Every structure is written in structure tokens, then in C-alpha cells.
């Protein structure tokens, strides 16, 4: 049931159908007590594809998928691909104006949406003139003219036989968060994704027919889309989608589903540490946890592993790389604070501003080369060109490579704070703050300063019932940080702002700082 490396010329739906033919009755998706086996997933996605074609979707068209984690998300995703179209995944936390931008920019002809999102759909639909139709998953509709997804499933028509150039045809467009200007749509071909699935499946040592992936990270995101959905389903494993992150519900579901793999971002592992003692045993079936999307504070990793006895393997990779580039080897040597070794088929390098390779243990930009690198940004040739050093994709991460080939992310280039001409890497400061017992979570950003250029500012949230004064935190930092690295301000919040994947949003913290200083950030 593992993918054959020779199968990269097959499209994503062809690979799914291959697994379905070989193991038709194996569980593919378990959602809210409902089991969907591989044969059913293959047939229902085929029927839905036929219905989409019947309503005018043609090869190369884009169809937006605005859907919560569920069995229907998976069916709709593969149906769009079987129709020869491109999936445009939509972030559930975006406002209607941002969604409209993505739909209009991609030229999507249709939207398939969860009915719980109908109010947002009502708010953006009139500003998207090129939409031909919308499909509601559920009984509630944004408009009476919308179709029901259940109706698409009823069409008994042959699955369209559509040729696919796996190297050129774009399977998915995923818009990267617009930290500067408008978000950009990363175009991932079938070949990009199938190669990354093969590499990930090998790296995480999937056990077909045995592994059950709990997927609470949003599947519209590249991490969950590839590692949580495509990799298990194209490897003959099962997935258990959850629509929202609640620590107790996650623990209950791990226990009831006998889940073996959990995907999370650091804030999720931190939140699971709040579980009552009588919940700890519910994680017993897990083989391991995978962490990505943001730097894992070593103190959080240590406390989690000590309490639950489950190892967390940290890895990394941006959306543009399909997305996984590296991982600490499963059952192999892990290194604290490292994102591990390049996964099979992927090359990584540390480069300077001119694209020259840098010596080991020196800080530069992490660059990646391999079949997983995106085709480019949708309708943005200049931005695509600027993101590359020849065949190497520039991740925007500053990092180092040690003498054993392990990579370390120091920080995002844009997050680095320059104090009196000296580089301050927020991640280094955050690691120290997490070691201070009263602090639950922390994020450090730069703030413009007339005399010093910039100063580091720490936003923190305390554990329940805990607190500390700035003087006490500063005194703790002095044992591990230089004077210029110690935050000049400590701003306490009940909770730090996060995106749909649970990643702390530093841009929101910067905006808050600008508002407090009376800066017009428009």
C-alpha cells in the first residue's frame, strides 16, 4: 500500500483510486461516527466530479473549497481534481473581503462551502462576478439558488476521463498569508504533491492499514493538507478529521479512534499540557506527534514528552515546498531546536544574499531544491522570480546547518530585530521566556526606536493563576541573554493572537504596537 516511486506520473486521484482498487473495504475517513471506506471515497468523489463537469467545470478551471475539516472536505477535494480542475483552498478565518480577493484573483468558477459559513458567503458572493455557481455542504444555503452537495452525490454519471500532465497541471492553489501586501497563490502541481507525499510517507514511516491520523489542523492549510490528508490516504492509512481544536475533545478522539499519529503546531501541544491528570492516559495509542508550522519551544517539548511519554518530531517546510522539507528522523537521532534532516528527494542549503553556499554553522537563508518546489505564484511572475536562486527556493527563514546535516531555524528574515546594528533573533529570546515558570506563551517583535533603531518587545500570556513583574522577567532573562537581547517592554495579554492553524500572529502584535504608539499602519 506504500507509494511506488515510479508512480509520480500518476495524478493525485489516480493514486487514490489505485489504493481503492487494492483495498476497497479499508477505512479511509472516520468522521463523527461515520466510516467512509476507500471504495466509497473513490465512487463518491467520482460522482461529484461528474456533477461538476455537468455544470460546466472544465479542465484547468479553479474551484474554491471553503470547508471545515470533515469527510466531505476529502470527497470534494478529490472530486474537483477528478473533474480536471484546480482546488483553491480557502482559509476559514479570513474576512469576506480577503476571500473575495482570493476567488477573484484565482478566477474560481465555483465555491463549495460548509453551511456554517453561509453568512460569510453571503457577504462576499456579490463581489465575485465570475462565479458560476455555489454548492452548500449541509441544509443551510447562502442563497436559494445554491446547490446542495448531497444533490451532486446523487448524479449517476460516468466519471470524466480527463488527461493530466502531472508536471504541469496545477492540483492546488494555496494562498500564503499576506504579511506584506496581498497574499500570493502558490501553485502546486500533481507532481509536486505526489513527490512530497512519497517523501513524507517514507520519512514518517507510515504503517499502511494500521496508522490512523488525527487531523485537527485545518486541512485547507498545506501542513494538514499534505501530511494529514494526502499522505495517509495515498498510503492506505486512515484519517480522523476534527472540525475544531479542543484539548479534551482531541484526547477523547485519540482514545476512541485509537489514533496513532497526531499533527499539531506548538501552541496545540502547549494547550494539551493543560489537560487534567485523568486525561493523560487517553493519548496512549499514539506512536508519536509531529510538529511544524512554527518553532517548537524546547521547554514545551520537554514537558509534553515527560508528561505523556510520547515523542514529538519537529519538522519544517513552507507552503511553496508542498510543504515538507525536513524532519527529525523517526526513531533516529533528534537534536534539540533542530528541524532535522532533509526528507528523501529534497535538498536544502544555507545561502547568502547572493545565492552562494555558506559554511556549516553560519547563519544564512535556508533554500530548498527538489520536485516538491511549486510551479510558481499564480499570475505573479516577478514575485516567482524573486523567490528563487536558480532552482533553489528561498524560504525567507534564517538558519544554520551543522556538521551532521541537521538544520536549525534561527528566525524569519522579516522577524529579525536589529538593535544598534546588532542582530537579535526573537526565537532565541522566546526560548528563554518559555523557561520562566509563570509564562504560558511568548512572542517577541521589533519596535522602531529613535536611538537604537529597534528594540525587542515581548508579548506574553501567563499560566492560569500565575503572574510576574517586568522586573522579575528581566532578571530571569539576564542569566541567558545579552543586554541588547533582553526585551525592553513586556506586554501581558490573556492570550496571544493566532491563525487558524494555531500559529502566533506576530503581524497582529506589530499592528497592536502601532496602534498603541499612534502609528497609522494603513
UniProtKB/TrEMBL annotation:
The keyword Ligase applies. Residues 17-378 form the AMP-dependent synthetase/ligase domain. Residues 429-503 form the AMP-binding enzyme C-terminal domain. The chain crosses the membrane at residues 72-94, 212-234. This is Long-chain fatty acid--CoA ligase. It comes from Candidatus Raymondbacteria bacterium RIFOXYD12_FULL_49_13. PROSITE patterns: AMP_BINDING. SUPFAM superfamilies: Acetyl-CoA synthetase-like. Keywords: Ligase, Membrane, Transmembrane, Transmembrane helix. It comes from the Bacteria. The keyword Cytoplasm does not apply. InterPro entries: AMP-bd_C (IPR025110), AMP-bd_C_sf (IPR045851), AMP-binding_CS (IPR020845), AMP-dep_synth/lig_dom (IPR000873), ANL_N_sf (IPR042099), ATP-dep_AMP-bd_enzyme (IPR050237). One of its GO terms (molecular function) is acid-thiol ligase activity. The lineage of its organism: Bacteria, Raymondiibacteriota. Pfam families: AMP-binding, AMP-binding_C.
